[in-house]
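ingest -> fold -> write
write: protein_1
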Amino acid sequence: MLYQLLDVVVTLINLFGIGIVFWGFVVAAIGFIRVKLHHHRVVYFLKEASKIRAVLGTYILFGLEFMIAGDIIHTFIKPSQEDLIVLVTIVGIRTVISYFLGREVDQARQDQIIKTG
């Protein structure tokens, strides 16, 4: 019974993470379309595109954290060597993605501070 409940919790955590990433895509897509439709100057577009990328990257990072948490809980529920290998692989890939995406988001924010400061 407890394992079934935890399976549901893991599914909800993963769905929440996916929802965050999807919401970030929607926010970024709307921002991109708005900028593209209303502003035709390349310099302004590039500045706004950098902001949009930072926002999308932040949502992706946040969503990935939930998905990693779900994977960790899932492995504790049903520990097997195969599940552990899959977990290490998934967490490794997501951690690398998170690291580089985080650096890109930080760089975009620094660029924005420099441009506006």
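write: protein_2
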Amino acid sequence: MPHKINTIILDDEPSAIENLESMLSFYDYINVVQTSSSFNHLWHYLQSHADQVDLLFLDILLHNENGLDIAKMINANYPNIKIIFSTSEASYALDAYETSPIDYITKPINAVRLQKALTKIRQTDKHHILKSNDVKIGIKNKNMIEMINIDSIKSIKKELRHVKLLLTDDSKITTTETINALFLKLKPYGFVMVTRSIIIPIHDITAIDYNSSTQRYSIRLRSKLQLQPISQAKIKDIKSDLAAFDWII
């Protein structure tokens, strides 16, 4: 990214665009180059200016359009553009994080919360943080190291003395590394240790249920992996890990 972060805003509420643009004007490193209330208009702009755009503020509930679908299209066609969701609906956070946004902030936008989101984009620029689909991890397997894409990891499970990785193609890799060592490697890329023997990617979580009779929590996953009920002490650790990715639970 250049020193100035070239920014576009897509929102179907003119007042929301005006408010956000006003708030962004206090940051001299943010350069708003385009605002739009229509994705068609924005898409036409990107076809000739995408290489000059660094950041998109994107609403989710647009008139006749879905911001999540738009984010997927942006990621597929213009992966250099980072996304910050700005929406009045907090309930879409789980689905939104599948698109690997820089952040997810709710309206009305709080100045402190906005500053935190902008700090993230600057840190991403400064440290050249890779998205997980660009990253491979070396897995020790006997006398070799096998390189696999982080995005291909479905879960990691300790079974007796062995640690096994289940991949998205349902293949398995057994490693000689400890599950704690793998967690430290993968935590920055959005993985959580939900029990002492299981690691999962946070984008796989769809819900966390509380059973008042047993006073334990159950985590539901898109992958349908069945997890044992989780204690209140352990759920605090999980919430702490999720908070690092701005999940508010």
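write: annotation protein_2
Confidence is low (pLDDT under 50) at residues 126-130.
The chain is about 30% helix and 35% strand.
pipeline exit 0
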